[in-house]
Design goal:
This protein has one domain. Helices cover 24% and strands 16% of the residues. It contains one helix and two strands; from the N terminus they run H-E-E. A two-stranded antiparallel sheet has the order 1-2. It is flat, with a radius of gyration of 15 Å. The termini are far apart. The model has no long low-confidence stretch (mean pLDDT 81).
Length: 91
């Protein structure tokens, strides 16, 4: 496959993942988001990295406090300390 075809497939996957996240947010709160900074160069909006960790919590067992922003976690250590971070800001 050519590079352009692979990029088109990756872009389509990101769009599909963004749609899936919107569907999941109907039933779940986003509790944690971490972007792997080794893959920052492959990020496509709304994701800042090509590799992301997202924790969802069922709305039936959790209640949001404050404005619902996803707080920074002390557990979110850099995956690769020698590269810059690309952590997202999720409302």
């Amino acid at each position: 496959m050519t590079k352009n075809i692979l990029l088109a497939i990756a872009a389509a996957a990101v769009v599909a993942l963004a749609r899936l996240m919107e569907e999941l947010k109907r039933t779940f709160h986003v509790a944690y988001v971490h972007a792997n900074n080794y893959a920052c160069r492959w990020g496509e909006p709304p994701f800042t990295s090509g590799a992301n960790e997202i924790l969802f919590v069922n709305k039936r067992i959790a209640v949001l406090q404050g404005d619902g922003a996803v707080p920074a976690s002390p557990l979110a250590l850099s995956n690769y300390p020698d590269l810059p971070e690309c952590q997202p800001r999720w409302p």
